[in-house]
Design a protein that fits this description.
Layout: E1 2-4, H1 12-15, E2 24-25, E3 28-29, H2 30-39, E4 45-50, H3 54-62, H4 64-68, E5 71-74, E6 79-82, E7 92-97, H5 104-110, E8 119-124, E9 127-129, H6 133-143, E10 147-152, E11 160-164, E12 167-172, E13 183-191, H7 209-216, E14 220-225, E15 229-231, H8 235-246
Parallel strand pairs: 1-4, 1-8, 4-7, 10-14
Antiparallel strand pairs: 2-3, 5-6, 8-13, 9-15, 10-13, 11-12
């Protein structure tokens, strides 16, 4: 399940005419990168919770075949013949309109009807990571609780400069903070019981009462991921992620 409905107001340069998950890294929407990550671990069934400019996401995938294949079109007959097969063949994508103003918890609750297995995974549509999906899922199954949230080390807002006698020995533009304090990395695993903690009311925010109540009930565990993680909140993040892709340093590219 991918949350794709936010406005992305802090990335206005890119999101004025398209939703945040459609902001591109290396010529592909960030949502594509997230889905490729999951698919590399054998997860290829997706539910997209749409909101702001959901039509852009629908159009992108509806026309995916002609965007990514050589094809022959016979005019007048409407016949279309693809000449090659892309690696995303077999992805099953459900597009669910969950309201332009709905908060995260409401969006999740509204798509409950599309979840037909006891365990489902949930991810925000604006961040990439090298998290091992198989290990995350195995960890969730091992503790037997309702929910698992991936804890990540946040990248520093400022570059790290290490020097010795005024000679720079190390420079790292976005080092991770190693103080031990982790943040919500947005890669969740839940049992269907979690839907009982949610409301379809558009003001239901996943990160507030639902997760707070789950914590009070001692039903939420943390899976610690110390590898790469980066969200795309600002234009600086956009440039940083595109720079990593361009330079062949995209650690989230596990496919």
């Amino acid at each position: 399940m991918l949350l794709c409905g936010g406005l992305g107001t802090r990335l206005k340069e890119e999101t004025e005419y398209k939703p945040k998950p459609m902001v591109e890294i290396g010529g592909r929407p960030i949502i594509w990168h997230i889905m490729k990550h999951y698919a590399s671990y054998g997860v290829n069934k997706f539910v997209l919770c749409l909101g702001y400019r959901g039509d852009v996401i629908k159009d992108y995938f509806y026309n995916y075949e002609i965007r990514n294949n050589d094809f022959t079109l016979t005019l007048g007959k409407g016949e279309l013949k693809n000449h090659n097969q892309h690696s995303e063949a077999g992805w099953e994508i459900t597009f669910a309109e969950t309201g332009a103003n709905s908060m995260t918890g409401s969006r999740i609750k509204q798509v409950e009807k599309y979840i037909d297995e006891d365990i489902f995974m949930l991810t925000y549509g604006d961040g990439v990571s090298s998290v091992d999906i198989n290990k995350l899922l195995a960890f969730h199954k091992s503790h037997g609780k309702i929910g698992t949230v991936t804890g990540v080390l946040p990248p520093s807002r400022f570059g790290e400069l290490i020097s010795n006698n005024n000679l720079v020995e190390s420079f790292n533009e976005k080092p991770q903070v190693h103080s031990g304090g982790m943040i919500n990395g947005g890669f969740f695993v839940f049992n269907k019981k979690f839907f009982d903690y949610l409301s379809p009311n558009e003001n239901c925010i996943l990160e507030r009462q639902p997760l707070e109540d789950l914590t009070k009930d001692k039903e939420l565990f943390t899976y610690k991921h110390e590898g790469f993680w980066q969200c795309m909140d600002t234009y600086r993040d956009f440039e940083y992620l595109n720079g990593l892709w361009r330079d062949g340093k995209a650690e989230w590219k596990v496919w």
